[in-house]
Amino acid sequence: MRVGLYPGTFDPITLGHIDIIRRASVLVDRLVIGVAINRDKGPLFSLEDRVAMVEAEGVRLARQSGIEIVVHPFENLLIDCARDVGAQVIIRGLRAVADFEYEFQMVGMNRTLDDSIETVFLMAEARHQAIASKLVKEIARLGGDVSKFVTPEVNTALRARFVRT
Asked: Is 161 a catalytic residue?
């Protein structure tokens, strides 16, 4: 069984993330979505909220793809998380050239730590390349419409988080 790990903070999960999950699901038999506990980033949503949002999308995508999709929160090294879940492949999404430089360094470090785990990059579809969770949060915070970037459920969660008084 080929197991893939798609890690991220998913704060919140966007249509760009969902695009990568959908496309990754044809490459593996089981896809683990690793929700990173990254206290340094100061996430908008709690770990529990992020896991619930990712799980909701995972259920829909698993039905469509026919593969097992599970959500796994983690706070350790990415390579250790990959070992923990039995992943042979780490899946990373790329939006632009700027993403590549960071990801290139990460792959080098991960290969040094464990060269048996491969990293596969998937380019976001053109219509999703500009979507970044950070920008989505900023637009929502300022009262803008983010419905083109997230699912209706995530849009509702963002609006509830940034209720204007």
From this structure: no
